Amino acid sequence: MSSNWPIVLIEGIMVFGGALAFAWWQLRDIKRDQKKAADERAARERAAAAAPATAAQAADPAAAPAPRDGDRPGGAA
What we know:
With about 80 residues, the protein is mostly helical. The chain has 1 helix and no strands. The chain has one helix spanning about 5-60. The model has no long low-confidence stretch (mean pLDDT about 80).
């Protein structure tokens, strides 16, 4: 009966080692996904911060292009 101990020990190490490896893998994926989400959030915030500046430039009538004949309501005059 005592001759089975090495096999039981090896099997236990393999099962718990596999569980630990799987847990490490999942935690690594979570950390990577959180970093990716933080980077995307920062990019959206940078884009939102830059958007009002471009909207203000477009709202400036001096910066707007002159309308062409076909752009006027009622067609060309």
